[in-house]
Design goal:
95 residues; mainly alpha; 2 strands; GatC
């Protein structure tokens, strides 16, 4: 894939970057070099490579999946104009 000067100007416009006419050819070369490198990555065989979460082997940190009210339900509804127990009371809006 090759980037032309019109595409460089459009990318600069979308990125809200001011680019002069003198800078366009240089940016075009840089973008084309980046895209050439990305195309090289498509040639790498990764069929036997397992997905990683980090570059160093480590176990995922996991927390217990428990349901709790946080222990501060009274504080949460303390300033509510109306409440019923630990719940906010709101007017009915749908008939």
């Amino acid at each position: 894939m090759s980037v032309d000067q019109a595409t460089v100007r459009r990318i600069a416009h979308l990125a809200r970057i001011a680019v002069t006419d003198e800078e366009v050819p240089h940016l075009q070369d840089e973008l084309n070099a980046i895209l050439a490198f990305v195309e090289q990555l498509n040639e790498v065989d990764v069929t036997d490579v397992e997905p990683m979460t980090s570059v160093t082997p480590m176990a995922m940190k996991k927390r217990q999946d428990v349901v709790s009210d946080g222990g501060i339900a009274d504080l949460i509804v303390a300033n509510a104009p109306e409440r019923e127990g630990h719940f906010f009371a709101v007017p009915k809006v749908v008939e």
